[in-house]
Amino acid sequence: MANTWRFFISTANRPNSLGARFGRAVAVLLVAVASAGPGQVAACPFCNAVQPTLAQRREAAVAVAVGEVLTATGDQQRFRLHALVKGRERWETPPDELTLAADVPRKPGQLAILFGTAAGEEIAWKAVDAEETLLSYFYRAPSLREPGAQRLRYFARYLEHPQPAIAEDAYLEFGHAPYDVVAQASDGLASARLQAWLLDERVPQHRKGFYGVALGLPRPERERQANLEFLRRLVSEPSDDFRAGFDGILGGFLLAGGEGALDTLDQRLLAVPDAPEGDLRHAVKTLRFVYEFGKDIPPERVARSMRQFLKRPGFAAAAIVDLARWQDWDCLEQVAALYDRAPSTPAGTRRAVIGYLANCPRAEAAVELAALKQRDPQGVAAVLDELDRLGGFEGSAAP
Length: 399
Prior knowledge:
alpha+beta; five-stranded antiparallel β-sheet; 5 strands; globular
């Protein structure tokens, strides 16, 4: 989801017209959040889809073959081609063998999928280790041209497959899919399996965030309630350390429980003065997600929870960025007061405050900004000049 889910985690914009002035202000806010520490914006918090799937590589390649290592000497490996899966039309007589630079050690007899990409008039080949089970999975994997939800139902069967490469590739398919398509395929994600994977220490931690949010996807009411209670228990477990996948668990909890679940999150985490910092980082990302996709939670209610991070110096700048994007101006006074918060206010927070006030359309914001100019003329002028320099960055200005 790092590519296609990134927009709803990092921008979390409601469909509206923000205008050029907002685009410039957000650009300044993003400069502020870049030095905001724990609250800074990241890619999708639920998945780590940082590499393409096998099906995506197949689609992008001009030629795909299945080969077997014949010899591996020095920095070269020679493959016998058993099958040409794609690109046969490029040759009058397809080659029987290919010699590739050795990227990883391989032994004679080892199978691999060979992906060829255009390099001028030549083809640059890249080998991916395979065995018979993976090859069968690869051959049957549906094309990217097939309906998204239908494709994901195929890959759902292979999540946590005993063959690690298959399990990871199936997970990546969900990671690259748009959220609405994943939601449409929720009937292929059995709740019992998702719950078991979340409790299984053998399941890679980076996949658990997705399994958590998947439990909050549309379900029959009885199943939804069971998932809600399961997620509530996980959310309520005490922790003083970073919990991998906890952001996805929170996301699933809020999707399944709506405003009531958000009330619980406020009480048990956001309002707790000494709450674990790792859990708070997860909560920030989850609020961005639920603002966009938590259709049962009004956006103003999500903003109210985000405001609680204004009280935490390490998270305030990031919170101001989100509240400005969401056009939440009711916390104007609270935001303005952060500029001189004792004992010292981080520079990123001060920049974010100025950007928020410069963007806010209310008359009170202009008054607050004028007061800041009197107290700190050089600091305010520097940020406003920065805003003007970034004036060409219009639109969403997503990080």
